[in-house]
Amino acid sequence: MSDQQRLALDALAAGRVDGPPPGPWEPGRAYPLALDVDEANGIAAVSFAILDLYPDIAPGWWCEAITFAFRGGRWRFAAGESDNCTAPDPFSRPASATNSLHGWCDWHTNGGLGGWGEDDPPAWRHTLFGIAPEGTARLTVTDETGTTRDLRITPWNGAYVAIVAGVRSTLTGCGERGERLGAFRAVDGSQEPREPEPPPGWRPVKQLGDGLGSSLVFERVTPPDDG
Fold first, then answer.
1. Which of 9, 75, 115, 200 gives the lowest tally of CB atoms within 10 Å of its CB?
2. 3-class SS at 122?
């Protein structure tokens, strides 16, 4: 069992991710960010910040999610890793979104859509992860059956992760007064989840990870019109 898997199991046992972790940061070391447990389906995910996970591709912080299944009375590692680059400071919660068209979530990534087989239900599962800025008080995920559940937002960094049964899901964000801030279809059942077209003056930042997901991160290519 790897150190990363041990840390994930500790977080699942505690039901929370404590932090922020003390520095200095070590390249290649996994620091827990967020967790998710789908009790109805017996699956879970834990996300981590890893410095220089792929330094030859993009130096800096990456987020990696790993998954688990509840079998034989305990959580067991279930593979299904997914990763992408993340915020320059993954250990503090941003006041507002810095790298997303969606003001209520930031650095969102759709992880891989994987099949586990009929003998290891749920047969299809997918992950997603990102950061909820300070104004986002609640996140929910709705699966292909129409079942909606709350996601845990780690208070000290705003990180969230989800593992969802099936091939479709919708992520919804709400504010402090319960008002709906927005929603989008995170995974739609295709082999590669579709990425929305950016508006004029923006371009997508291509996913740097090696999973099947696509990034919802955009960058401005023309200066804003100050009117």
1. 200
2. coil
The angle at the Cα of 11, spanning 74 to 157, to the nearest 5 degrees, equals 150
Domain edges within the chain: 3-220
Task: Enumerate residue ranges in the chain where pLDDT < 70.
Answer: 188-199, 204-219, 222-227
Strand partners, 141: 149, 171
Give tens-digit pLDDT for 16-55: 999 999 989 999 999 999 999 999 999 999 999 999 999 9
How far apart are alpha carbons 125 and 5 in whole angstroms?
Answer: 19
Cα–Cα distance, 208 to 225 (Å, whole number)? 30
DSSP letters of 140-189?
Answer: EEEETTS-EEEEP--TTT-EEEEEEESSEEEEEEE-TTS-EEEEEEEEES
